Every structure is written in structure tokens, then in C-alpha cells.
Design the sequence.
């Protein structure tokens, strides 16, 4: 049993707007971008594969001298910008600093300089007897990543989310207690739009866990909290959005109240649907779909791994109860996906209400083979092919998943491995 | 010059487009027709500063083109940019329409108008923003008929765009358009949009309206101002968002000044003043601060009686505000009130306010009030100053913060320039010189700094007879910092002293300090010695040359040799 090299643990996965590019960030501060290869003419029945397009070091470990704390280089989130020219732009963030990266292709270079040799050495000016004009020659495709902007020093606490606004001009970044609004061109200033820090820190009861901008309405954003609530704010109403416009909370079921109720109600991810009409939240045991027009309860609730409810005590002891799972929509908002333990991940069809559990691991997935659905046995009698709750490996957790914006292609990060699954074309 | 060479990159260049900025500037200088193609590519890069500079250069070049060349070379370039794939080229195109429109034929003009129309309804917000920001400029070069038929509909559309950032740029365009249209058309063509903007759901749009209010007022004229803008201004002053209220508060004086004379007073008293009264007790300090910086200006508009009855209570209330910036803004604008009612009315409240600011815990607040002190002293008069403010000025000299002590010294110098050397001799010089015996060496040094600042204003007599002895005595101070500052002081006041004093009193002391045990004292003493040598030369050229000590001159030469 090999222990994964910790710097390789994937910490975020994100498709770009067209789905052609897939970015992953890892604990070592690296970003790896995969590109969808065009379908080959020989085998039109297979979709193209994703191959490595670019790798670069986005963040380095730092040290905060004032507080004597290390700042991890782990990439918390990556968000792509809408494409504006031949190059691609993405925002990547660690706990404290957000960077805007430009990924561009270079397939030509200038040759025939007068003052430099081909290998870059300076020529002796006295030996030059004639002048020539440099020409552009084709070269092997090179993909370069360069940092274009660095947005730093705006967050006292750890950044958990970034989200690009539909105006293509601004984006927001959220940490435990504050949300800031940035302009993509301006790095030395950001506006604070939400501040939930109490005057007396001993009165602190809830923190911000995730935030996202609405996909179409430039003035709307939501943020979720550790107490299981979601607040929707309107940037038109006021400069400082401390007062929410809508407040989403499901009343608690008194029969299931326990010591762990509040911990497992903490929302680890919030995502708007592509249509902008719904939003989805992930807490420890379930995924909920909310209609933005109804604040007092979600319209759909899906149990991810309800069999863990009786195991909460041991999950609290090994800290797994604090794991932050993400969730995602498919392109048409008809299905949602989220991860679980034992390298399992779950998909729910919202129309048919059918759900499926799949496993992302080397043993169970050979290339081109169809994935077999998995089942966890909850009762005493375990059927063949089922796995019992106690045999689940809680170190193999799938926290990060992504769904292609148009096609049925998904990316699943299992510790330090990335799996890409596609729908079979019949 | 080919576009390729303009990119000028080597194989491993990763800094990218920032390096193109100087190229864009260079092309600007060349101003050659051949230079247009590279500018076209530069106008499409993603780095905004480079694109903006390329557009600026293209605009300048367009002026050099003949009308024929504009149609043959320039307008096709603009067309290509406007139909470009990426939003970057389309945003650049927006900045080029207005410069080529005036001098081309009418068919080409129609094409240009069409392109602009397309860009105003572009898919990407960035292009619509660029179009909205250039709308006013484009309208200025259009014929009046086309303004009415084309521009108005584009303006209305942009002002109702779903993106806040586009709508707020339309407000700026509103000002230009309103200026261009005849008065009778404003009501139907512009006012509905403007009214909508002043009540927009987004506070940022309302903020823009407040910010541009004076320009809007001038553009729409007195009738519409009375009927529409006055109620609109009232609403902005009462807006729920503090940023909007602050922007409107900033414009109160200008708005009132520009009201038509015949019913100005009545409008202000009935409509504006009640809102202003509310703002004085606003919850947000930035609003109060913005108001405080302009409210005093209302007194000149309203006249003496109204000021005393209505405005004076407001000034006094703001003088007592808990926020220091509000109080400071009132104090800095006292001259307007002085013209109308004289400052005496305020002085009773003014003094406690000044004292409180002078002793504020934050040093930057203390610093600000010191900087107003010469102005206040001038307005309040010398007796008032001596009676009430003198002690404050002295207290600042021994403040804990160096920046305050320094500002206080400078303040004294300005006061002496205002009130004269004789006043200085009677009131402040004794106190300053008294500090020379203070047990704290920082205060003793302050004496020296004051002397440096005051010597010129006080004149030779006071400097030689009163200040010099004190300085010389401090050359025996225990603390080296004091001693080397003595040397510096002597160098500073040297030009004010007469040569006898220099010769008989200053020279020996400097020589003694030049042999001090401390390195810095020695250094500054030497500096002072070489400086006074120059002063000697000055005196030597004077009508009655002093008798020079032969020994002294030789010593000087020796010193000079040492240095070289």
C-alpha cells in the first residue's frame, strides 16, 4: 500500500467555459492543464482524450513574519476567465494570494538577429559586416504560462472561494469572515463587501465557507456558512452587503438532533445552476437543490452517504467529519455529482430521481471499460459485490469533481490521481 | 516596419505585452503612414494600457491624414477592428469612430454609424462599456438630425442595459448629449432616461448621477432644473446608500450657486436646506465630512440674516461633531463665513473645538489643525490669538511626536511673518528661549530648531542679542545631539548675524566643537566652519570690510587643505 506523495494531492479541478481545457491545482502549488485532443479521423466513435497541455508552479510556500505562520502553497481554487483572445486566462488562489495567469501558445520565433547568435551569445560587433532583417520561423508548439496580475494582502483569514462576475470585469474572493470585490485590472485595491467579523471575537459563532457570483446577474452573489445557512446579497442595494437580501435555511428536524448536528450542517460548497434559477449546496451527508425564489426549504434533497450518520462519532475522532466535499452541475442542470469516501462518487439525475455510485480507482477502471455501479451495504447481510460500511477506506476521499460544461465528460480527483470519464457513444 | 518586428520578442520572453508599451509610444513619435499596420495589431492586444496608447496614437495620426486617405486607409482599419473576433479589437474601435467621422463622405459616415450601432448592442459587456464611454464624444461630431435619430435610441438602450457597469457610463454620456440638443427637445429625448437613472436600483448609477450633477444642471438649463433636478437632488441627499448621499453632499454648494437667480433663495430655503439639516446628523461620517467641506459656502449665497438664523446653528453643530474630519473641514472653510457675518459669532464655539482638535489622541488630527493655525490667527486677529491660542502653540512644541514638534516650529515662523518681529520678541521668543533649560534634551533641541526657523524673520538684532547667547551656551550641553545641532544652528543663523558676532563669538565656539570627542559634533562643526568662511567672503565684499584676523585666515586655509 503506497502512501501518496503529499505534494501531488489534487486540491481543485475546473473545466474552462468551452470544456476544451481542464485545470487541476495541487497541494504543492502546481497547476496542470489538460487539453481535449480533437477526435481522430480514424476512430470517430471515440471522443478525444485529455492530454497535458501545460504545467507550471503557481504559488510558492511563504512565511508570514508578523504572525510567525507558514502560508501553504496549496491551490485552494482555480477559476477560468471567459475567453477574450487566443490566450487563456485563469485565476488561482492559495490561502492568501490570488494570481491571474495567462496561458498562451507560441509557434513562431524570430531568427536571424544581428547582434545575437542562435544560441543567444552576443556577437562581436566588429565582426558584423552586413545587416539582415530577422524573420519569423515556425517552431515546435510551446505553451507558456505567465503571471499577469497578483492580488495580495487583502485577506487576514484563509481564502476559501473565488468567483468571476458576469460583467467580466470584477471578481470576488472570500475568506472565513470577509468577502472582497476586485477589479481584474487593479491589484492594489479591493472593496470589502461582506464583513461578518464580530466586534468581540469571543462572540464568533459562524464563518463563511463558500461564495459564488450569479452566472447572469452581475449584482447577485451568495455565500454559505458553517451553520448551514445561505445568504443571497444584492450589490445594487448597498455598498456594504452585510444585510442579506434573501436568507436560505432549512428548519432543523428535531428528531435527528445530535451533538454533531451543527457540524454536519456546515455547508462545504455552493454552486449556482447554469440557468441561474437554482443553487446547490453540499453539507456533510447530503446535497440540496434550492430554488432562488423559495427561502424556507430546498426543493430537492439527495442523500450522499446516509449510512455514515451512525458513524459520526468515529468520524469526528478521525477528523473526517470536517472534510469539505464539492459538488457540481452538468451542462443542462439535469444531473448533479458529488464525492464520497473509498474513492466513491455519486451522481443524481434530477428528472428520474435515479442515483448511481461509481468508484474511481485503478483496480476498478481500465481505460475504455465501463464503470460498474457500486453499492454500500447498510444492513446486516452483505450481498456479493457490496462493500460494508466498516470496510470503507476513509483516507480515499473524493472531494473535488468537475463536469464538462456541455458534454457528458467528468473529471474526478482521487487524492493524487485524476480520472476522466466519458459517456459511451453508441 | 512590420508588425512582427514591433513585437520584438526572443524565444523565451515571458513578460509579454508590457514590453509593447514603449513601442506604442515610439510609434506615436514616428507618425508615419507606414506605421498604421503595427498600431492596428497593438490595438488588439489584451494588455489595456498598450491598447489605449495605440488608440491614442491612431487618433493623432488620423489628424494627419487627408480626407481621401482617411477613407482609403483609416476607415477600413476601423472597420476591421470593429468586426474583429476578440472583444479587444472591438473595444479599441470604439475610440476611433469620432476622429474619422467628420471628414469622410456621407456613404462612409453611414457605415461608421452602423458599426457604432452594432457595437452598442454587442454581446460582451466590455464592448458595450467602451461604446457607452465614447457615446458622448461620438455624439459631438454627429449632425443634429443623426443625434436625434441614432444617438438617442442608443443612449436609451445603454442606459437600460442589464449590466450596472454599462448603465453608469451612460450617465456620463447624458451630459454631453444634453449639451448638444436644443432646449425644447430635452424634455422628450433626454429627461425620461435621466429620471430613470436618478432612481436606478443600483446605487452606483445613482452615485454617478450625483457626481455629475453640476454638469447636468448646466446642460439642461434653468427650467428643467427647477422642475426636475431640484426634486432629484433632494432624493439623492436622502438616498439610502451613504456613498450616494456623500456624493450629493459634495455638490450642495455648486448646485445652489448655479440655480437661476430669481428664485434661488426660495428654492434653497424650501427644498435644499431641510435636507442639509438632516445630513448634519447623518449616521455616516463620510457624509457629514463631505457636507462640512461645502456647507460654509452657502453663507455667501444666502446672505447675512439667513446665515445667522439657519446656517449658524448647523456650523456650530458640526464644530462639535464627534468625527475630527468634520470639525477640521468646518475650520478650514471659515473664510467664507468671515466675509458674510464675521468670525466673532463663531469664536465662542470655535475655541473649544480648536482646543479639542489640538489635543486629539491621533497625531494626524493634531497635525491638521496646526496647519490651519496661521490662517485662523490671521482671521481672528492678534489679540484673540495671544489670549487664547498662544499656549496651544507652545504646547505643540513639546508634543511627544516629532512631526508635531516640527510642524509647530514651522507654524511659529509663519506667525512671525504675519504678526511681525516685535510681537515675536514680546510673546514667543522668551518662551522659546526658556525651553533651553528643559531637562528633556528633545525640548532643548526644539529650541534650536525654532531659532533656525525664526532667526531670519526676527532679524539681526533679536538674533544677535537674544538668540545667539542661548545657542552658544548650549554648546556645553551634556548630550552630543544638542551639541552638533548647535553647530548646525550656528551655520543656519550665520548669514543673519553681523560679522563681529561671527568673528568674536561664533568662531571660538565652533573651533571648540571641532575638537569635541563625538564624531558627529566634530563633523558638523567643520561643516559650519567652512560655511561661515563663505559668509566672511560676503562680508569682505561689503563697503566697510571688517578687520580679519590673520591667524584665522591661516587656520581656514589649513582646514581647507585638510579636506582636500
Sequence:
Amino acid at each position: 500500500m503506497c502512501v501518496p506523495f503529499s505534494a501531488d494531492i489534487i486540491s481543485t479541478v475546473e473545466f474552462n467555459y468551452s470544456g476544451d481545457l481542464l485545470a487541476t491545482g495541487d497541494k504543492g502549488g502546481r497547476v496542470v492543464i489538460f487539453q481535449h485532443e480533437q477526435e481522430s479521423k480514424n476512430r470517430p466513435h471515440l471522443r478525444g482524450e485529455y492530454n497535458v497541455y501545460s504545467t507550471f508552479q503557481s504559488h510558492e510556500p511563504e512565511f508570514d513574519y508578523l504572525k510567525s505562520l507558514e502560508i501553504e502553497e496549496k491551490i485552494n481554487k482555480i477559476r477560468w476567465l471567459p475567453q477574450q483572445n487566443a490566450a487563456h486566462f485563469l485565476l488561482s488562489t492559495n490561502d492568501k494570494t490570488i494570481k491571474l495567469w495567462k496561458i498562451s501558445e507560441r509557434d513562431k520565433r524570430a531568427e536571424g538577429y544581428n547582434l545575437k547568435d542562435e544560441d543567444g551569445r552576443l556577437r562581436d560587433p566588429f565582426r558584423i559586416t552586413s545587416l539582415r532583417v530577422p524573420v519569423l520561423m515556425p517552431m515546435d508548439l510551446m505553451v507558456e504560462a505567465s503571471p499577469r496580475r497578483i492580488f495580495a494582502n487583502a485577506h487576514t483569514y484563509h481564502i476559501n472561494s473565488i468567483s468571476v462576475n458576469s460583467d467580466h470585469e470584477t471578481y470576488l474572493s472570500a475568506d472565513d469572515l470577509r468577502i472582497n470585490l476586485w477589479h481584474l485590472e487593479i491589484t492594489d485595491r479591493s472593496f470589502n463587501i461582506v464583513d461578518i467579523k464580530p466586534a468581540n471575537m469571543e462572540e464568533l459563532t459562524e464563518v463563511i465557507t463558500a461564495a459564488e457570483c450569479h452566472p447572469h446577474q452581475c449584482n447577485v452573489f451568495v455565500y454559505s456558512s458553517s451553520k448551514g445557512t445561505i445568504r443571497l446579497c444584492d450589490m445594487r442595494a448597498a455598498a456594504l452587503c452585510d444585510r442579506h437580501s434573501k436568507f436560505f435555511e432549512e428548519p432543523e428536524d428535531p428528531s435527528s438532533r445530535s451533538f454533531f448536528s451543527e457540524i454536519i450542517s456546515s455547508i462545504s460548497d455552493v454552486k449556482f445552476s447554469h440557468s441561474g434559477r437554482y443553487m446547490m449546496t453540499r453539507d456533510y451527508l447530503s446535497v440540496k437543490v434550492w430554488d432562488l425564489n423559495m427561502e424556507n426549504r430546498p426543493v430537492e434533497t439527495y442523500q450522499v452517504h446516509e449510512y455514515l450518520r451512525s458513524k459520526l462519532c468515529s468520524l469526528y475522532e478521525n477528523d473526517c467529519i470536517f472534510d469539505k466535499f464539492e459538488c457540481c452541475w452538468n451542462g443542462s442542470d439535469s444531473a448533479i455529482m458529488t464525492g464520497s469516501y473509498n474513492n466513491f462518487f455519486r451522481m443524481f439525475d434530477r428528472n428520474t430521481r435515479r442515483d448511481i455510485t461509481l468508484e474511481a480507482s485503478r483496480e476498478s477502471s481500465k481505460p475504455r471499460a465501463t464503470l460498474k455501479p457500486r453499492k454500500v451495504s447498510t444492513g446486516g447481510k452483505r450481498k456479493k459485490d457490496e462493500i460494508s460500511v466498516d470496510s470503507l477506506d476513509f483516507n480515499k476521499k473524493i472531494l473535488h469533481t468537475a463536469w464538462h460544461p456541455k458534454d457528458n465528460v467528468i473529471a474526478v480527483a482521487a487524492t493524487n490521481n485524476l480520472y476522466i470519464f466519458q459517456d459511451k457513444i453508441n | 516596419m512590420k508588425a512582427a518586428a514591433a513585437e520584438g520578442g526572443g524565444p523565451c520572453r515571458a513578460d509579454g505585452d508590457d514590453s509593447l508599451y514603449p513601442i506604442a509610444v515610439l510609434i506615436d513619435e514616428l507618425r508615419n503612414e507606414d506605421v498604421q499596420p503595427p498600431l492596428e495589431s497593438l490595438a488588439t492586444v489584451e494588455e489595456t494600457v498598450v491598447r489605449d496608447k495605440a488608440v491614442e496614437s491612431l487618433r493623432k495620426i488620423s489628424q494627419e491624414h487627408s480626407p481621401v486617405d482617411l477613407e482609403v486607409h483609416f476607415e477600413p482599419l476601423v472597420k476591421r477592428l470593429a468586426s474583429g473576433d476578440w472583444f479587444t479589437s472591438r473595444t479599441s474601435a470604439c475610440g476611433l469612430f469620432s476622429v474619422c467621422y467628420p471628414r469622410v463622405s456621407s456613404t462612409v459616415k453611414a457605415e461608421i454609424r452602423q458599426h457604432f450601432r452594432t457595437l452598442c448592442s454587442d454581446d460582451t459587456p466590455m464592448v458595450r462599456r467602451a461604446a457607452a464611454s465614447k457615446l458622448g464624444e461620438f455624439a459631438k461630431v454627429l449632425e443634429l438630425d443623426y443625434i436625434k435619430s441614432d444617438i438617442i435610441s442608443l443612449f436609451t438602450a445603454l442606459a437600460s442595459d442589464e449590466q450596472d457597469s454599462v448603465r453608469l457610463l451612460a450617465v456620463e454620456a447624458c451630459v454631453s448629449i444634453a449639451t448638444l440638443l436644443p432646449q425644447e427637445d430635452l424634455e422628450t429625448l433626454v429627461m425620461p432616461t435621466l429620471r430613470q437613472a436618478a432612481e436606478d436600483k443600483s446605487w452606483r448609477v445613482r452615485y454617478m448621477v450625483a457626481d455629475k450633477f453640476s454638469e447636468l444642471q448646466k446642460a439642461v438649463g434653468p427650467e428643467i432644473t427647477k422642475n426636475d433636478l431640484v426634486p432629484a437632488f433632494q432624493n439623492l441627499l436622502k438616498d439610502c446608500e451613504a456613498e450616494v448621499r456623500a456624493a450629493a453632499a459634495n455638490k450642495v454648494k455648486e448646485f445652489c450657486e448655479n440655480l437661476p437667480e430669481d428664485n434661488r433663495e426660495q428654492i434653497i430655503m424650501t427644498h435644499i436646506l431641510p435636507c442639509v439639516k438632516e445630513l448634519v446628523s447623518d449616521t455616516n461620517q463620510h457624509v457629514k465630512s463631505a457636507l462640512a467641506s461645502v456647507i460654509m459656502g452657502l453663507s455667501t449665497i444666502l446672505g447675512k440674516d439667513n446665515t445667522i438664523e439657519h446656517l449658524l446653528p448647523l456650523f456650530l453643530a458640526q464644530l462639535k461633531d464627534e468625527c475630527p474630519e468634520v470639525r477640521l473641514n468646518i475650520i478650514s472653510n471659515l473664510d467664507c463665513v468671515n466675509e458674510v457675518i464675521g468670525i466673532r459669532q463663531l469664536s465662542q464655539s470655535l475655541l473649544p473645538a480648536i482646543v479639542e482638535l489640538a489635543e486629539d489622541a491621533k497625531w494626524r488630527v493634531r497635525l491638521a489643525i496646526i496647519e490651519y493655525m496661521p490662517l485662523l490667527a490671521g482671521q481672528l486677529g492678534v489679540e484673540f490669538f495671544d489670549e487664547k491660542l498662544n499656549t496651544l502653540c507652545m504646547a505643540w512644541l513639546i508634543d511627544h511626536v516629532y512631526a508635531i514638534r516640527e510642524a509647530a516650529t514651522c507654524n511659529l515662523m509663519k506667525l512671525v511673518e504675519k504678526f511681525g518681529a516685535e510681537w515675536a520678541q514680546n510673546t514667543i521668543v522668551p518662551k522659546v528661549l526658556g525651553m533651553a533649560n528643559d531637562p528633556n534634551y528633545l525640548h532643548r533641541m526644539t529650541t534650536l530648531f525654532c531659532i533656525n526657523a525664526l532667526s531670519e524673520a526676527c532679524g539681526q538684532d533679536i538674533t544677535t542679542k537674544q538668540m545667539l547667547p542661548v545657542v552658544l551656551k548650549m554648546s556645553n550641553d551634556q548630550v552630543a545631539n544638542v551639541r552638533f545641532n548647535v553647530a548646525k544652528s550656528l551655520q543656519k543663523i550665520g548669514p543673519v548675524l553681523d560679522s563681529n558676532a561671527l568673528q568674536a563669538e561664533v568662531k571660538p565656539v565652533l573651533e571648540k566643537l571641532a575638537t569635541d570627542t563625538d564624531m558627529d559634533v566634530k563633523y558638523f562643526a567643520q561643516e559650519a566652519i567652512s560655511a561661515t568662511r563663505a559668509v566672511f567672503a560676503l562680508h569682505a565684499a561689503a563697503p566697510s570690510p571688517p578687520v580679519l584676523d590673520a591667524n584665522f585666515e591661516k587656520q581656514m586655509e589649513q582646514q581647507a587643505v585638510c579636506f582636500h
Notes: The helical segments of chain A are 261-265, 312-317.
